Give the backbone structure.
Amino acid sequence: RFEPQALSNTVWAYATARVSHPRLFHKVAKDTMQRKEDFNSQGIANLLWAYATMGIIDKQLFSSFALTAAKLIDSFNNQGLANIAWVYAVADCAEKKGGFENEALRQVHQWHLWQTKEKSRAGLPGELQDRCYNIIISQDLQSSRLQDDVIAQLSSIGLEPREEVLLDSGYRIDAVVEVNGKTIGMEVDGPSHFIGKGGSSTGSTILKRRQVSSIDGIELVSVPYWEWDRFGSDVVKKQEYLRKLLGLSNINNN
């Protein structure tokens, strides 16, 4: 029988490598819920981070560890606190916060949005809130060839896409277009947004989509890389795909 730390390390390794194994994660969840009092703070943080990262929103698992995590709150390091805050935001359950480095601060900003905008609860102290917001809006802007191609095809069907749009929430989205008087956000999702080749979205992607919709009030549509790649160099099919995605099926090419 595996020790608690070995169980959390195992799922953490799978999540870090972005390798999907539903049967393993199901078995580990069942076992760990029965042994939750045997976990230390690092084990809890790594375990729950792994499930959230893989987009496995097992609310029974997250809820069962909430009280144990709360009892150990003083023993979490900064990264562990950030992970716990982010995990419960992804799972949409409820707990914690802490104080941090860049990726951790981005996760804590997402937790703050979840608390204040989605749940109407107290969030971060003002100074930490500003620090998190400044980190999340200062990320380097790096468009891909995939994104550039999608933008070019949006222009070709008569739209005027705005790229890398900063929203009030602090999120940036790849493009925004106006369709029949409605603002629609578009995300060009490459491999980093998914777990393995199965098409399951990561926890970060799930959370961003939900928060952009609920906080910024913008409908968000996704262009997954594998759907776009199947068109190859066929411009006509790419444009047909975008028209259908945006509800413009009856609009002809210019």
User: Anything to note?
Assistant: The longest helix spans residues 102-118. DSSP finds eleven helices and six strands in the chain.
